[in-house]
Amino acid sequence: MIIRIPGTRKYSLGLAFTFLLILSGSYLSPAQPAQKKKEERKFEVTYAMFFPGLPKGTEELIIQLPYPSKNKIQKISIPAVTCTMGNDHEFYYDSKYDNKIFRMKFNENIPPMMELYVQYTVRRKPVFPGDTITENSDPKVFLKPDSLVPVNEDMTKLAAKITGNDKGNTARARKIYEHMTGKIKFLPGNAENSDGNAMTAMDNKEGDPVEYHALFTGMCRAANIPARMNFGFRLDDTLAVKKTQLSGFHCWAEFYDEKLGWVPVDFNEYFNHPDRKNKHFGRLNKNRVKLSTGRDIDIWGGPRQNYLTNPVILVDGKPYTNIKTHFSYKDYIKKKAQ
Questions:
Q1: Among 8, 80, 210, 235, which one has the highest count of C-beta atoms within 10 angstroms of its own C-beta?
Q2: Are 236 and 226 within 8 A, CB to CB?
Q3: CB-hemisphere CA count at 13 Å for 6?
Q4: 159 three-state secondary structure
Q5: In which element (H, E) is residue 231 found?
Q6: What count of Cα atoms within 13 Å lies in the side-chain half-sphere of residue 201?
Q7: How many Å apart are CA 54 and CA 84, to the nearest integer?
Q8: With contact defined as beta carbons under 8 Å apart, do 231 and 290 qualify?
């Protein structure tokens, strides 16, 4: 069953690649024809949850987790669900960002111990300059501040100083990108261990990946450039021939250009591969899957989420955290011709 919450709009932009190069100049490095022909990456993700001891007398259990949406960059299969209590489930979309959310609800004969496995196949393509990523959310939504990504006076002054008299969102976002990589120290880490406060990175001139991308997002917004954060998994570059544990969550940012669409920026890749640092602006590799977009996400019946990566569990209407999770993936390996 799919429930769509009203209030969202769909945007689709098309743009010829040659026209993109004229508009963007040197700000986006063009992809070579051979790069464009690179194959997508196909892999299977398993999302496992274990409930070691639900409270005695539990009358209602609600399980919710982000489920990746499909677009021209990633294709997602229908999930295979295995659960102690059966596999009945539904999807709904949050009204602010149109994130797809998987939901299960139980209200009778709930055992003290449970297991749940959600498995799906992802076909992910790389993103090159010239690719237009279409999404459902209105770009103007991503000019507004979030609770931990403010657009205040200090940030607005800094953004104005950095961008100067440059015109066009791509040129000005590139200036912010260069300021960040030159002036703000990047601290390795993963999304689940950070509150992602943009001001922490701005004040301390250093930040973990979530804080770092939050500051880029905030400064873009302060320069009147729509920008947003994405959250998901990052796969190893090497193909996984057997089930491999996913090591934490991954985040990256995108800014919006009226002529180019959403343009990705992943500072993790910039700092992990400094030898290719000039090729990361406007590009994403295929070694990932996006789970959700945005901050301050309202969940059906639950507390507002700073960002959506982990399961949201409600026991008798109250948040519940006594669960164990395990995320893994395995690549589909093409057999070599004999």
A1: 210
A2: no
A3: 0
A4: helix
A5: strand 227-234
A6: 31
A7: 13
A8: yes
Tokens read off for 191? 């999304």
Ramachandran category for residue 130: left, alpha or beta (phi over 0 → left; psi -120 to 50 → alpha)? left
Q: Are 227 and 256 in contact (CB under 8 A)?
A: yes
Task: CATH number for 2-38+130-291: choose from 3.30.2000.10, 3.90.190.20, 3.40.47.10, 3.10.620.30.
Answer: 3.10.620.30
Q: Dump pLDDT digits (tens) for 42-76.
A: 999 999 999 999 999 999 999 999 999 998 899 99
Q: In what order do the strands lie in the sheet with 250-257?
A: 261-265, 250-257, 227-234, 288-293
- Token pair listed for 113: 């111990």
Residue 277 CB partners (closer than 8 Å, separation 6+): 181, 270
User: What is the residue extent of each domain of the chain?
Assistant: 2-38+130-291, 41-123+297-331
pLDDT tens digits, 156-194: 999 999 999 988 999 999 999 999 999 999 998 766 778
